[in-house]
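fyi for ur records
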Amino acid sequence: MLMQPLVSRRSIRKYKNTPVTRGQLKLLLEAAMISPSACNTRPWRFIAITNRELLNKIGDVHNYAKMLYTAQAAIVVVALPDAQKGVRDGLAEGFYPQDCGAATQSILLQAEAIGLSACWCGVMPKEGTMKVVRELLEVPDNEIPFCVIAIGERDENPDPRGKYDEEKVAWVE
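which gave:
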């Protein structure tokens, strides 16, 4: 049942020293790439990282991604706004943040489904963070580093934080 990965998923900030394989990363990327996007523009690309030195460097420059010091892998979601320009007379333009968010959530859920854990670390819209991640990963100016997702085998079990809240629902019948 789909609810199980949704319920058990947590933002994990401490990982075991267990390698994440290329095959596991490919499953996460496949999940991302079947995510919905405006007019099927798929305005994204991904940088899969297992290089320890690079993971540490990203942790050094991103104030809220220190978990990369123990994560065994990361996926950087890179937004491609130009992929939506002019599509269906502009219908798709500007939806890349939602589309990249959907791809990111798919990675998080697929990680949980295959026994890995992850943590979504936002990059966009923080200009300073975007600049340092862009420079470190050599992301061209017409692309946007959207987020960094730390990945690995969890070495902590934080309590659940979210729950259903009826007060946040308006029923229109």
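The beta strands are 44-49, 73-79, 117-122, 144-152. thats all i got for now
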